[in-house]
Design goal:
The structure holds 2 protein chains of 2 kinds. Chain A is an alpha/beta fold. Chain A folds into 2 domains: 209 residues, Periplasmic binding protein-like II (D-Maltodextrin-Binding Protein, domain 2); 203 residues, Periplasmic binding protein-like II (D-Maltodextrin-Binding Protein, domain 2). Chain A contains 18 helices and 13 strands. Chain B is mainly α. Classes of the chains: A alpha/beta, B mainly alpha.
């Protein structure tokens, strides 16, 4: 953090208001030099980037084991997770779980710092973009060595958490990349919702542009893609490429991503998506202020598990749609099941047994399922999934049904994101705005972006 | 001997110190160090220690998760080829070289107006100082974001007169300008210092000038500015150092990513991203030391140049 030396600047001058002019001037000069020294010291403080820190306090006075549990997410997730924690603590009076949660954007900076300071939370909600980074560098516990029952998990979900350092994450839920539609926006514009089993990218463009044209100023048919790599992944898969290859390299060429941007530019020119400035502003908005939730976008790119939270924010029903395809066949949309998040544990936890016990509870206990429902995606444990089915809210049912419906249409499971994949989103986002603001041609942006991505994951 | 008496003997001393005086001085020095101890401890533990640590890290490859590995000058060599770093330097220099003179000019003008003996001066002084207290804060940066947004206050006012304004902070051409404006707005603290400086200029100079028939403008150029030059210098040094380290405004306004298109990617922000976002703390540490050198060079230039324009009345 920058040091603001202004506070120190006021004092010396303010005090020297009396006395003979000569002495005063000399004093002022000396003080000026002294203050400059203070300022120089302040400048130096910036270099304080290294962080110290002790280990976490493990046992409280009454002999209880305290575990720290970190996740990212909004209010709704905080509520359901606290309920799951309460259920666990009721069964395990000797273990206390201390929650630490916040927004996605700050979560990773904080986690990296905590791990560096040897102060990592015991239980860590992990994302596929970062799990290889953390696990190959030895920051995560191999959960297969502990008492966690994985026999009821869907095989694909279980495999997603395996790597060269063992089982370092257990899938918390299954989701899929989707397009969510706000029917209220369509209704107001007098445009029919698309049929997501047959629509193509041309349909996407036409319908979105039509909604924009028939809506009040500031409302657009669709949100722009390009703020993360998920929609790029879908696009690449539909074109026979992929984000990453199995050996951890980039799975596409500059021309592939350039095409993706060309289409975005086309959408932008036809006003199917918001203006470049509005896209940049929308990036920073949290989920409940997103264009879809506030009724400013008819269609938007989201993960399936985010629907219930978005419906809550929008105050009305939303609809889940498959991605458009090139051919108009749902099977060519090439969607896939993604492990929405993982439960991971710090390799330096002082209580691996208790930590595993909690993860086991989250994974296999129906009570955890009843609390968490579908907030982190569809439960990967088939038994829990069945047991909680009657308890699901309407929005959750929609998500579960969608995941079920696309089962027969899925493409191959994509390769796991390699080490350094956490940097890709920022690169995509940055070059998307370079393209939208006409500062780079799509070809130049493609070349530069691919270069940067390659060095990020090398 | 009282502390003030001690001070006055030091100030007025002409001849060399006697043996006895030296002894007494030594005793006092010891006492001074004892009193300074808490501060010295803080300096060692909170400032110097981490600084040395970061100096060490700047010569290592350190990904935060594993122990650092010595790589020599690699990080510093890498900086030469890092286009984003060069861009962040360009952004930071623009911010400093445009923002600081602008802010000081505004501060001086306001100080001159307030110095004219306005009624309710303390009130105005406080009002004008307020932004300085708030300007670096997160809340004001968020407010700024609202005011300069596509549908923000500025564009609503512009719309009334039929102008469709850009998204000031979301357009790469205007984003940095908006942040510089936020910096200029926080002119309060240099203004307070200027006010104090203006009060110190003896009235007799102005009286003499008036007798000689000097105009107000001439008085400003020939009396006010030279007499105020030490204060200007002081403000300049502090503001330049402070501005090079600016972080909060750009971090909040751009949502932490220095966007759009790196147009608000300050050096400090890039450093933060490298260190905490991209697992490259060794490089980030090297950047911090590079910034220290830049600030050192600027401050040195400032001090050297001051000999030619700063006028000490002694």
């Amino acid at each position: 953090m920058p040091v603001n030396p202004q506070g120190e600047a006021v004092a010396p001058v303010a005090t020297s208001t009396t006395g003979a002019a000569q002495v005063k001037a000399r004093r002022t000069r000396r003080k000026l030099r002294a203050s400059a020294l203070v300022a120089a010291t302040a400048a130096a403080v910036l270099a304080l980037t290294a962080c110290g820190g002790g280990g976490s306090e493990a046992k409280s006075a009454d002999g209880k084991v305290e575990l720290r549990f970190a996740w990212w997410g909004g209010d709704k997730r905080a509520q359901v997770t606290q309920a799951a924690i309460a259920a666990f603590e009721a069964e395990n009076p000797n273990i206390k779980i201390k929650p630490e949660y916040g927004d996605w954007s700050g979560y990773w900076d904080k986690l990296a710092t905590q791990v560096a300071a040897n102060d990592a939370p015991d239980i860590i909600q992990m994302d596929e973009k970062y799990i290889t980074e953390y696990s190959t560098r030895g920051a995560l516990l191999d959960l297969s060595k502990y008492d966690i029952d994985t026999s009821k998990l869907d095989q694909a979900a279980l495999d997603a958490g395996k790597g060269e350092k063992g089982l370092t994450g257990i899938a918390a839920g299954i989701n899929a990349a989707t397009i969510l539609a706000n029917p209220a926006v369509f209704q107001a514009a007098g445009v029919a919702l698309p049929d997501d089993k047959t629509w193509t990218w041309e349909d996407f463009e036409r319908i979105s542009a039509e909604v924009t044209a028939k809506s009040p100023k500031g409302t657009y048919g669709a949100a722009a893609y390009g703020t993360d790599e998920a929609s790029l992944g879908v696009w690449l898969r539909q074109n026979g490429k992929s984000l990453y290859t199995d050996d951890g390299k980039l799975g596409f060429e500059p021309s592939d991503i350039a095409e993706w941007w060309s289409f975005l530019k086309e959408l932008s020119e036809k006003k199917a998506v918001p203006s470049a400035s509005e896209v940049v502003e929308a990036e920073a908005a949290p989920l409940d202020q997103s264009g879809l939730a506030t009724g400013k976008n008819g269609l938007a790119f989201w993960w399936s598990n985010q629907l219930p939270a978005l419906e809550k924010a929008a105050g009305g029903e939303l609809q889940i749609l498959r991605f458009p395809s090139k051919t108009g066949k749902a099977a060519d949309a090439k969607l896939w099941y993604k492990a929405s998040q993982f439960w991971s544990a710090s390799s330096r936890t002082k209580h691996p047994e208790e930590t595993a016990k909690f993860i086991n509870f989250l994974t296999n206990n129906v009570k955890a399922g009843e609390a968490l429902l579908a907030d982190r995606g569809v439960y990967p444990n088939s038994e829990v999934r069945e047991a909680i089915a009657p308890k699901l809210a309407k929005a959750d049912v929609k998500v579960v049904d969608f995941i079920d419906q696309i089962k027969g249409e899925l493409g191959e499971a994509p390769a796991a994101p390699p080490k350094g994949a956490g940097a890709i989103q920022e690169i995509v986002k940055r070059y998307t705005s370079e393209v939208l603001f006409d500062r780079l041609s799509t070809e130049e942006a493609g070349k530069k972006a691919v270069d940067e991505m390659k060095s990020a994951i090398s | 001997m009282s502390a003030i008496g001690e001070l006055s003997t030091i100030t007025r001393r002409k001849g060399p110190m006697t043996k006895e005086e030296k002894k007494a001085n030594g005793r006092d020095n010891k006492a001074a160090y004892v009193f300074l101890l808490p501060w010295l401890l803080g300096l060692a533990v909170i400032t110097v220690g981490p600084m040395l640590m970061s100096l060490y890290l700047s010569f290592t490859d350190y990904n935060l998760l594993q122990p650092p590995e010595w790589v020599g000058l690699d990080n510093f060599v890498r900086m030469f080829g890092d286009a984003r770093l060069h861009n962040s330097l360009r952004v930071t220099f623009t911010y400093v070289l445009v923002g600081v003179p602008l802010q000081l000019a505004v501060a001086l003008v306001i100080a001159l107006v307030l110095d004219k003996g306005l009624r309710g001066l303390p009130f105005y002084r406080s009002i004008f100082y307020l932004p300085s207290l708030l300007g670096g804060s997160v809340a004001v940066a968020i407010l700024w974001k609202q005011i300069f947004g596509t549908t923000g206050l500025v564009n609503q006012v512009l719309a009334m007169v039929g102008i469709e304004g850009p998204g000031w902070i979301s357009d790469p051409n205007t984003a940095l300008g908006s942040i510089i404006l936020l910096h200029v707005w926080t002119f309060g603290s240099p203004m307070i210092i200027f006010l104090a400086g203006l009060r110190q200029i003896p009235v007799m100079y102005y009286e003499a000038a008036k007798v000689d028939g000097a105009t107000t403008l001439q008085q400003f150029w020939r009396i006010t500015l030279p007499m105020l030059s030490p204060i200007i210098f002081f403000n300049l040094v502090l503001q330049i150092i402070g501005s090079f380290q600016s972080f909060t405004q750009a971090f909040i306004v751009s949502g932490g990513n220095g966007g759009p298109s790196d147009s608000t990617m300050f050096f400090t922000l890039y450093l933060y991203q490298k260190g905490f976002g991209q697992f490259d703390m060794g490089y980030a540490s090297a950047m911090a030391w590079f910034l220290l050198v830049i600030i050192g060079v600027f401050t040195a230039i400032n001090f050297i140049a001051s000999k030619y324009w700063v006028f000490y009345d002694d």
